[in-house]
Design goal:
Belongs to the DEAD box helicase family. DDX51/DBP6 subfamily. InterPro entries: DEAD/DEAH_box_helicase_dom, Helicase_ATP-bd, Helicase_C-like, P-loop_NTPase, RNA-helicase_DEAD-box_CS. This is ATP-dependent RNA helicase. The structure is a single chain. It is built from 26 helices and 19 strands. The radius of gyration is 39 Å and the shape is globular. Among the domains are: 247 residues, P-loop containing nucleotide triphosphate hydrolases (Rossmann fold, 3-Layer(aba) Sandwich); 186 residues, P-loop containing nucleotide triphosphate hydrolases (Rossmann fold, 3-Layer(aba) Sandwich). The strands form four sheets. It has an eight-stranded parallel beta sheet with strand order 1-12-4-11-10-5-9-6. Strands 15-16-14-17-18-13-19 form a seven-stranded parallel beta sheet, with helices on both faces. It has a two-stranded antiparallel sheet with strand order 2-3. By secondary structure, it is an alpha/beta fold. The termini are far apart. The structure holds adenosine-5'-triphosphate.
Amino acid sequence: MALFHVARYAGPEAAGAEAEADGRARALLERLQCRARERQQQKQPAQQEAARASEAAGRRRRRPRRARRREGGGAAGSPHEPKGKRRKVDDEDTGGAGQGRGRGRGIRVRGGADAPPRPVSRAGSSEEAPGESGADAEGAGPPEDPGERPPGEASGPPARALLLGGFGRNRAPKVQPFLPSWLAEPSCVGKSVTEDLVPIEDIPEVHPDMQKKLRAHGISSYFPVQAAVIPALLESTANGFLVARGGYRPRDLCVSAPTGSGKTLAFVIPVVQALLCRAVCQVRALVVLPTKELAQQVSKVFNSYTDATPLRVALVTGQKSLVKEQESLVQKTADGFRCLADVVVATPGRLVDHIDQTPGFSLQHLRFLVIDEADRMIDSMHQSWLPRVVEAVFRSDGAKDHPLALLQRRQPQATTAASISCPQMPLQKLLFSATLTQNPEKLQQLGLYQPWLFSTRLARRGPRDADEDEDGDSGGKYAFPAGLSHHYVPCSLRTKPLAVLHLILEKNFSRVLCFTNSRENSHRLFLLVQAFGGVTAAEFSSRCGPSQRKVVLKQFEQGKIQLLISTDATARGIDVQGVQRVINYDAPQYLRTYVHRVGRTARAGKTGQAFTLLLKVQERKFLRMLAEAGVPEMARHDIPNEILQPLLPQYEEALSQLERAVKEERRQKAP
Ligand SMILES: Nc1ncnc2c1ncn2[C@@H]1O[C@H](COP(=O)(O)OP(=O)(O)OP(=O)(O)O)[C@@H](O)[C@H]1O
């Protein structure tokens, strides 16, 4: 854009000869340019300072405001213009130099190459911010007569000129995510439950009586996770469970190992052994699990290792009435209450009910808090069960002047000479899962003390990786049982049930656990399979009552049910012997769900197969998710239409039966 208009200067002098005027104008122009340069050089330090300030202010300003200023304004007298600046412009306007001075300063910059054109006279005053260099204005648009530049002046901005702008947001420096060292450098646990076995006698810390019990249960060697965790846990109870070694608080343990790798015994054995030396029955170990069935399974394992000992195990899941459960926890005596359970296995909701409503139920002597399926339990933290437990553990009985008040448990604080001079029973948290989160933020909710991680998988780079599991994405983060083979079956929505029937009938699959994504899907598939006939099937979901679920699981375990159609209620932890195949009728949305579902087979070193039925639209995403998860190989298993053809007539008949059954159910439900 034009910087100045020589003709306007030429005006008064042009009365005589135009050429003379032209010459004078040029001379004047050169003089002005010289003066401008001189001033520029004099002002350089101040300008640089101001430019820095302006740049900083520019960065703070929001973009639309900047744009407004550029457009409107800066015009002299603009209400947006700072007062000082306006005054300066006014001074210049009245200073007599008029356009000449304006030109001197007019060699100032425009806000940017894309700023809208403005009248020359305003251009001079609108960009009056100190430190702006007019030289750039020349650079911003060609001068009307480039030949009139002073010799040596380049057409581009001079080297020391300051450009307005630089408002572009500077990118914040990238922060490298990092994991706390306990997460980044776990104690590695062997993966193979067939090769990395440790004979029972190689861990002498386990009491001979306990070893005998293990052998009686058919266990001659420890699985890798047990060989790592049992000694670590026993070490923290080496002086009895009341005081940790040296009076120091023991570290909390986190264990991440594949499904079916024996995590349950990894805590049952040391906890039982530690409590065997207790004198008075108190709740010393609390195991919290997400589902009733799982709690029942774990309490069964505790029972099998505590029978013929004075230790008592109570199960509180809501399967029995509150009163019945209360009777298994406490007994009213003449002088108060007597505790009846050393180990309590509970679901979180029912546990809180007992903390609130069971008189005499105390957790003040709790030594071990086991959180099984820990990642799932962290998800249920909104129920606030953990703060309630911790509060109950450190509940004070009042009476500070009581002689035993000194020995009363207090919330742990920093370890100091004073704090260890009066040792108290520690509370140790033990976390177990096949898909333990590595997200430090999530783990922080558990208030772990110097946690120690045992893991079969490689350390992760950063918490970002750890976060991804919730999005269903990961990078080789979970270990799968070695004996598990993964398959997928491409099919359409219509042929999905047929594919299941084909796998069971034609391939002679027995003891199959089939997962759907909702209880409605489970129910309908069950009705359809029943209507089709030839398969002993059952359903397992929240549609069934607890007792019905218990019966179904038992029958499935006994081999009386060929196909168990279930929601994710059985996806975690359930240990049913002899499950040879898992079918994902509905593809799981998240990797964690996949890991747990397929982990119901190929347990304890056995082999198993997992089939996932995939619609065309699901194929790419699902296969990518598993590839990134480190699934060794995903075999494609095509079922050609010709194979399904013979099943079709029976299938069509079953479909119409299903339709009638669904209608009938709706009719019955209708008010
Ligand atoms: N040392 C061992 N030798 C032989 N069998 C074992 C051993 N330890 C555990 N098992 C058996 O392995 C099976 C799986 O164990 P467990 O249920 O503890 O696995 P898990 O790691 O907790 O699996 P999930 O993550 O699915 O809950 C059980 O049937 C158990 O009896």
